[in-house]
Design goal:
Elements lengths: L30 E3 L19 E5 L4 E6 L4 E7 L6 E10 L2 E10 L6 E7 L10 E5 L2 E7 L2 E7 L3 E6 L8 E3 L3 E10 L2 E9 L5 E9 L2 E9 L9 E5 L2 E8 L2 E6 L6 E6 L2 E10 L2 E9 L3 E7 L7 E8 L15 E4 L2 E6 L2 E8 L5 E5 L3 H4 L2 E7 L11
Antiparallel strand pairs: 1-4, 2-3, 2-29, 3-4, 5-6, 6-7, 7-8, 9-10, 10-11, 11-12, 13-14, 14-15, 15-16, 17-18, 18-19, 19-20, 21-22, 22-23, 23-24, 25-26, 26-27, 27-28
């Protein structure tokens, strides 16, 4: 594996474990941390459904759920009894409710890594139903009945872990740089991702999960001239690419004509997420060299594709990622959160016609959080216990 395909997580090397678990024993790890706080504000009936909860990590390795509107810490969950480092996380929601949290964590450098999957049962996280150990650089995607693990080590493999499978079967499949979509067809789950081939060319990978395992991986070469830092995202059924050309940010339709310039200078693309505010659709992009954040508003059915954009410089460095996913962005309660080396920065996002980004002053407890980041629906109840 060439060094240029490793991201900076490899500098603390390949993830280690937070808890040992006998192969056939019941998981016994998982510590919940609670904060006394009021319930999040109720959503108005006419307000469109949106994520209201920020998911981030504190300095002791606890995954924190934050009310993104009030900026109050809510529930916390630790992947181990020790202060393990959370390297990746992913949440799964159904019907507007948080259902599952998947965490990749390491206890020390140059050791294997563990993946734990916590069910969310109404208002608390249960103890992890799945804990598995893997070698290599890992990313994770929480799904309805388990988690998909992307592995970059001696091989590039995808594995599906669930409570009913002690030894998950893997399929060779490229390490994704972006997950575009999760689809369900005839009893199978299809995960579609942008990746790079062994020859470092852009490809589309489709992993098919059937009967609790990755049944196959289908790879399609792409004609799009995408750089190794390009990211992709699906927005309202349209697959979009985000890249830089000659130092300028560009956005295009995957497999479509040449990407459209945004009109802003930009360094290296690190992370992209979709934005939906009312009838407006757009993308949030965070970059390095220099570190900045951009919101691009789009006309998905129109021409030109890009309608408006706003940019803000960041006050601290954004980690560069050279292999795998980068969860440096989250959008919740109409606010954009960015993970930097110094903690979180946040912005109020205003759609067109103002199309602006307004910095938000964060409380110390929130500002000190770090990535990986995710967003989730509002937590409707008080968190008072654990299964």
């Amino acid at each position: 594996m060439h060094p240029c395909h490793l991201h900076s997580r490899v500098m603390f090397c390949v993830l280690a474990s937070f808890v040992l678990l006998a192969c056939h024993s019941e998981p016994t790890i998982g510590t919940l941390v609670h904060e006394d706080s009021a319930r999040p504000r109720p959503r108005a009936l006419e307000e469109p459904e949106r994520d209201e909860t920020l998911v981030a990590v504190d300095s002791s390795g606890v995954v924190r759920l934050v009310d993104a509107a009030s900026l109050e810490l809510r529930l916390g969950v630790r992947a181990s009894e020790e202060e393990a480092t959370v390297v990746d996380l992913s949440v799964h929601a159904e019907e507007g409710e948080l259902r599952r949290l998947a965490i990749v964590s390491q206890a020390e450098e140059e050791a294997p890594s563990d993946v734990s999957v916590f069910p969310f049962t109404g208002d608390v996280f249960a103890r992890p139903r799945v804990v598995r150990r893997f070698e290599g650089v890992l990313d994770v995607l929480a799904l309805s009945d388990g988690a998909l693990v992307f592995q970059l080590g001696e091989a590039r493999e995808w594995s599906f872990v669930s409570a009913g499978e002690d030894r998950p079967r893997s399929k060779q499949c490229p390490m994704p740089t972006s997950v575009l979509a999760v689809e369900h067809h005839e009893g199978a789950t299809h995960v579609i991702a942008l990746a790079r081939s062994a020859d470092d060319t852009p490809i589309l990978a489709r992993g098919v999960i059937e009967e609790g395992q990755v049944a196959r991986c289908e790879v399609t070469p792409l004609s799009d001239p995408l750089s190794e830092a390009a990211r992709a995202v699906r927005l309202d059924g349209v697959d979009l690419t985000v890249d830089t050309v000659a130092g300028e940010l560009v956005v295009g339709r995957l497999g479509g004509p040449a990407p459209a310039p945004v009109g802003l200078p930009f360094g290296r693309v690190e992370a992209v997420i979709p934005l939906e505010l009312g009838a407006e659709r757009g993308l949030a992009v965070v970059g390095s060299e220099p570190s900045s954040v951009v919101v691009v508003w789009l006309q998905l059915e129109g021409d030109p594709l890009v309608s408006m954009a706003a940019s803000e410089a960041l006050g601290a460095h954004v980690e560069q990622v050279y292999a795998g996913l980068h969860r440096a962005l989250a959008f919740a309660a109409g606010r954009l959160f960015v993970a930097t080396s110094a903690g979180l920065e946040a912005f109020e996002v205003e759609p067109p016609p103002s199309a602006s980004l307004r910095p938000i002053a964060l409380p110390d407890a929130v500002r000190s959080l770090r990535g990986p980041l995710a967003s989730a629906p509002a937590l409707e109840g008080e968190e008072t216990g654990q299964e």
